[in-house]
Amino acid sequence: MSQTASTTRQSKAATPAKKAAKATKTAARTAAKSVAKTVAKAAPKSAAKTTAKTSQGKKSMPAAAVGQDAIALLKDDHKVVEKLFKEFEKAGDSAYAKKRKIVDQVITELTTHAYIEETLFYPTARKAAPETGEHVLESVEEHHVVAWMMSELKDLDAHDERFDAKMTVLMENVRHHVKEEEQEWFPEVRKAMSRGDLKELGAKMEAAKGKAPADPLKLRSAKS
């Protein structure tokens, strides 16, 4: 056998091996690219999850801690009282215990509400929006009338024939008072005060609720 023929056979024999090696390298490159793409796709998601977890770990400050808008706070109080009024109106004639409980709740809510209005909101409102001065003075006097009515209801037995009548008159007075405040001059105060100032005032009002007197007739002495 000549040397040339031998070399040719060896070359032919090596060809399949070279092809196999080349195929292996190609497969390896393809696999590497596939892994790289998978990692690249997963990376943003992983980062997003990490960011989300970090965000969840840092709890945002509750709205109450920042301070609720003073006018929004007063309107919320109005809604609470109106809900109690409706409960009283729906109670039956002989639901004495239920009506007694509702009236006691109303007295507590209105006394506290009047206290924070007269000690904090009204003085600030008059200073920020002087045109509301007359409205504020009227509101204070309306508070005084309601306070007398509440003091009478506080000591009146729910079985007394005057109980429902007094409560009805009280509700009429308060509803009139609320309508005037919310529709006639609260908007003027909102225009005159910045959002930040209203929130700061709201926080002070919320904190002052615990200082309100239990007796509605002590409102004026408590604020002086």
Automatic annotation (TrEMBL):
Supply the PANTHER family for this chain: HHE DOMAIN PROTEIN (AFU_ORTHOLOGUE AFUA_4G00730) (PTHR35585)
Cross-referenced InterPro entries, in alphabetical order?
Hemerythrin-like (IPR012312)
Taxonomically, the superkingdom here is Bacteria
CDD domains recorded: Hr-like
- Which residue ranges have biased composition labelled Polar residues? 1-11
Q: Which residues form the Hemerythrin-like domain?
A: 70-188
Positions in coiled-coil regions:
none
One Pfam family this chain carries?
Answer: Hemerythrin
- What's this protein's name? Hemerythrin-like domain-containing protein
| Organism from which the protein derives | Catellatospora methionotrophica
Q: Where is this region: Disordered?
A: 1-62, 205-224
Q: Where is the composition biased (Low complexity)?
A: 12-54
